[in-house]
Amino acid sequence: MNTTAITISRILHAGYLFECEGTRIAFDTIFENPFSRNCHAFPQLRFDEDAIRRQRFDAVFISHFHDDHCSLDSLDLLDRATPIYLYCIFDELFDMIRQLGFCHVHPLRLDESVTVGPFQVTPREAMDADVDSMFQVRAAGLNVLNVVDSWIDDTTLGQLVDEGPWDMVLWPFQTMRELEVLAPSRHAAAPPALPEEWIAQLQALQPRYVVPSSCQFLQEPWSWYNRAFFPISYAQFGREVDAALPQAQVVRLNPGVSVRLDADGLQPAPPLPWVIPVGEQDVDYAYEGNASAPPTSEIARHFAPLSEAQRARVLDYCRSGLLEKYGDVEASSDYFDVPRVWQLSTVDSDGSTTHWRYRLEDGKATLDDAAGPLGWTTEIPATKLYGALEQGESMTTMYMRINDTVFDDDTERDLLDADVVDDPLIRCLFSDTFGAYQAAQLKRLLAR
Predict the structure, then answer these.
(1) Which of 201-205, 330-334, 411-415, 421-425 has the least mean pLDDT?
(2) What CA–CA distance (Å, rounded) separates 148 from 329?
(3) What's the helix, strand, coil split of the chain in %, to 5?
(4) What ranges in 54-144 are assigned the alpha helix state H?
(5) What's the order of all strands across the beta sheet hosting 133-139?
(6) Dihedral sign, CA of 9, 226, 433, 172?
(7) What is the phi/psi pair of residue 401, to 5°?
(8) How far apart are CA 214 and CA 148, in angstroms?
(9) pTM above 0.90, yes or no
(10) Structural domains of the chain in order of their starting residue, each with its CATH number
(11) Nearest to 192 by CA among 207, 174, 165
């Protein structure tokens, strides 16, 4: 290998393998399709798990705790002597990785470099520093910025400009509509264009090469999210970046594809043999605004029916567990500071629906079937509610539908200042929990 070059290979989503002078380091390793339960690789691929088990990485760097970046099922394929470097403010995730058998698990600190062979990897601060980080990677006289999923504030941007010049930037090219699809009737379609600040930031960084990164997935083939979740296509990204940075080159890296970066330019390199393309690879996203969201009763039919024990778990939660939890979590706005009637609807796989009405008052929830104007509604497939309770199902995979109705005039006015994540079910399931997905993975893996 040319000692003045870095070979960069795409794995999937935000996953990359960097190689230089015989040293191999990987980032945000996901070796699953689908991953995060319902994220199907786009373009389509499969992994040779036996070949992955034979791989040896000198280090693995994980940018944050989200399950599409830190999955124990994927880490389970790796040699337990592999050093794992993780950016996370919660000790629990480090403990989980150690319980899986890894003996070298290290926390990453912002702006503190880690040296692995010729590589110097420095975590940089993201806009949400409690969650995300970015990676600056130096080797062979080259400088690469892996932005992962992050948004960048002005202070960090100034720091990154000072760290230039940049040979390559791996840029998160999608603006996923994770909250808008929860309440599609209350959100306008997003414009299929890059945010203005992204263009300005790329112009400030002035990289030689820009890779549209992250977001290599679609939901289930039947999912309406596939037309509503991703506003930006590869083609749109390329057009806008080409126009704004005529001196830069936009480089699409599909899973398994490798390139060799050096001071003179970029050349193709042999692909990763354990990432196996399936079908057409130069596919692109199609966006149709809110895409006529189907009713929850139709969505629920795509999921397996609950067993009697699983259904009992859901019913018990709606009758008592939710009531106990509600008082422990607070809303971020004052919408629920006044009494509200909330209707939770759980929809079985045959389309039948159970309505639960709660009175929310003084920080408490009580079951109350008395008539009264509704102040909030939540619909969810019962199978998905069970998944959240027992399997670490995340908010973005649950097909919740929030406030998909017309309320009285006073309520509609008040809702203008409410946040969709103030939803009582979202708060009860997710406000004070961490690592439920990984905990469910660990329990299953240790029980083998």
Answers:
(1) 330-334
(2) 30
(3) 30, 25, 50
(4) 72-75, 91-99
(5) 114-116, 119-125, 133-139, 142-146, 168-172, 209-213, 249-250
(6) positive
(7) -130, 120
(8) 7
(9) yes
(10) 6-277 (3.60.15.10), 296-446 (3.30.1050)
(11) 174
CB within 8 A of 310, min separation 6: which ones?
386, 390
For residue 146, what are the β-bridge partners?
135, 170
Q: Tell me, what's the pLDDT at 362?
A: 92
Find the range with the poorest average confidence among 115-124, 185-194, 223-232, 337-346.
Answer: 185-194
Rg (CA), the chain: 23
pLDDT digits (tens, 9 = 90+) for 325-338: 998 998 888 999 99
Cα 374 from chain centroid? 32
CB contact at 8 A, 206 and 247:
yes
Tens digits of residue pLDDT in 3-55? 589 999 999 999 999 999 999 999 999 999 999 999 999 999 999 999 999 99
Share the mean pLDDT of the chain: 95
Between CA 368 and CA 103 the distance in angstroms is 52
